[in-house]
């Protein structure tokens, strides 16, 4: 699962992608992380709307923005769906607090009263 989680992690915030954008180079960024990249290139005389391009932080490909800015980039809906399923699976996985584990059989059920008594499995009670 660690490898999968690394594939679902934004290279900027190092968290699971949130509202991922699909860049033309096929990499992804969180919408807010892409916005922070643009803000970091702003100056008082140059507002964020005037920034027409930025580099992909993964491969350095120059991402050219249209007049809509980041809103002009496509959302990576497939990646968001995978992240949603991953988060649900993580919440119900083996280390989650909500997991229903098999209860152990009480000690009196596993104790043999005589050598001829069969041994019972502590999980399936057989």
Automatic annotation (TrEMBL):
Residues 89-98 have a biased composition (Polar residues). One of its GO terms (molecular function) is ubiquitin protein ligase activity. It comes from the Eukaryota. Residues 10-60 form the RING-type domain. Residues 88-118 are annotated as: Disordered. It is found in: Cytoplasm. One of its GO terms (cellular component) is cytoplasm. It holds the Pfam family zf-C3HC4. SMART domains: RING (SM00184). Keywords: Coiled coil, Cytoplasm, Metal-binding, Zinc, Zinc-finger. PROSITE patterns: ZF_RING_1, ZF_RING_2. This is RING-type domain-containing protein. It comes from Nothobranchius korthausae.
């Amino acid at each position: 699962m660690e490898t999968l989680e690394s594939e679902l992690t934004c290279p900027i915030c190092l968290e699971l992608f949130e509202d991922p954008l699909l860049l033309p180079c096929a990499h992804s960024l969180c919408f807010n992380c892409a916005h922070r990249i643009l803000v970091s290139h702003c100056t008082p005389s140059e507002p964020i709307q005037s920034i027409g391009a930025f580099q992909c932080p993964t491969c350095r490909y120059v991402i050219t923005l249209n007049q809509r800015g980041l809103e002009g980039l496509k959302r990576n809906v497939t990646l968001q769906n995978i992240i949603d399923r991953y988060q649900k699976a993580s919440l119900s996985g083996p280390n989650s607090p909500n997991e229903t584990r098999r209860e152990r059989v009480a000690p009196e059920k596993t104790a043999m009263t005589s050598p001829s008594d069969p041994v019972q499995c502590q999980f399936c009670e057989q």
